[in-house]
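Exercise: predict the fold of this chain.
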Amino acid sequence: MDLSAKVSILGLGIMGAAMARSAARGGLDTTAWDRSPGRASGLASGNLRIAPLVRDAVQDADVVVTMVSNADAVLSIMTEREGLAAMKPGAVWIQMSTIGVEGTERAWRLAGTRPEIGFLDAPVSGSKAAAEQGKLVILASGDQGRAGATAQPFFDAIAAQTHWLGDVGQGTRMKLLFNAWIAVLMEGVAEVSILGDALGIDLGRFTSLVSGGPLVPAWAVAKLQKIKEGRTAETEFPLRWAHKDVQLALAAAGEERARLPILSKIDAIWAEAEPGFGADDLSAIYLALSNGVKR
């Protein structure tokens, strides 16, 4: 790993903060920024510094990472806050936020206004714990030959696996499938839990019977346990962002949306749940359904 690489992380939410810590722990010279100064406080240590302005964070960086909530936030950081203009020639912008196909195309077009800057579309899959442990899965797309070597030290620091999927946009498309799959699984976990309540079955016993078997992946077992233990307020992935990702998947489907009835129903259910449970963990959809969210 090239430990001389300088990395800038823009966005210090659950995943961005964890990635910044992993990069710094991996020996990379890391600078981070967040639009909420309070969120950044306490992160600075060792190889990790906090910058007051986006341009201060990116001006010396070899790799600039955007990890924020939506496409508008990404574009605002890179235009209004001068992120792209302040990047040095030869640096690589890695767009890792989940912003959908149209949002990724907007970011790519913006990157094209500075052709001397590399651009990668590289969303990640993995839990908060995986991010903290540097064991994410990266779904990378773009010019691997031009930008990949520059990005690789950062990828090595934060991920257990990096998959190169082709041209810009393929990473985002794969991430939409990942998150649609998660949404369908989570709705299933929540509804099975409610059915168990109705049948008088202890959820812990059900979880122990299905754990390690072919029916339930480890991620779903963890969500079952979270529901059983009443820890849905311990947020790993907020319900509101999961709902946003369902909407991005449906938008990307275009005319095929009519053939996605389950995802469309999940969109409607989670839209009703979001006002009360949006900041909680995705598993809080169980509580929303238990409290009478209409099916």
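Check your answer against the key: The two ends are 50 Å apart (CA to CA).
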